[in-house]
């Protein structure tokens, strides 16, 4: 069985999970507590981070975007990048936007400080980081609204890895109740379309042991 090593609420692991599901590929999930630095896991990925995908033939791949690009090449029946070079370039641009810019400006400041610090018992959240995350998220939600004014999905007419990357990060922030949906209706409408997809359902059901989501998380 194909195996994906992941961590709860980890946006990059979530992205790979959705891509696998969109391509109708069966897989087994294994939680990897990367802070434990297991020797067996480090043998699979010396960098010590998730996600890591182990294919049925033993092929081992690390790094979310590397895994997604591999899946797109090996299982091309469901196209998630785009049908021409310009479309693929735009999809990749937006993947980078959310996996780098959004992650740095929002996810790390909010999910990292409010949730992962609790999970790892690393002390209280850093106030300036929280304030930065709360301020930055509005800019990104406005950008989603701008993109979807003239497009059916973020990168164009078709659902793509750009939508998957963005929603994976937002779903993690939404778990702790820090997405101001009421102020960004266009972004909310786009997000609701994403989470209604069958591939996204297991992510909505995921819970971190001992850390339940806020009540509003269930409403979208």
Break the fold down into its secondary structure elements and pairings.
Blueprint: E1 3-6, H1 11-22, E2 28-31, H2 39-44, E3 52-54, E4 60-62, H3 64-74, H4 85-120, H5 127-149, H6 161-175, H7 185-195, H8 201-205
Helix pairs in contact: 1-3, 1-6, 4-5, 4-6, 5-7
Q: How do you describe this structure in short?
A:
The protein has 220 residues and is α+β, with helices and mostly antiparallel strands.
Structural class: alpha+beta
**Rg from C-alpha positions?**
17 Å
What is the N-to-C order of secondary-structure elements (H for helix, E for strand)?
A: EHEHEEHHHHHH
Architecture of the largest domain, according to CATH? Answer: Up-down Bundle
How many discrete domains? 2
Widest sheet: strand ordering = 2-1-3-4
Low-confidence stretches: none
The proportion of residues in beta strands is 5-15%
- CATH class value of the largest domain: Mainly Alpha
CATH third-tier fold name of the largest domain? Glutathione S-transferase Yfyf (Class Pi), Chain A, domain 2
Number of helices: 8
Helix content: 40-55%
Q: Using the alpha-carbon principal axes, give the shape.
A: globular
Task: Work out the number of β strands.
Answer: 4
The first-to-last residue Cα distance is 32 Å
> What is the makeup of the main sheet?
4 strands, mixed
Mean pLDDT comes to 95
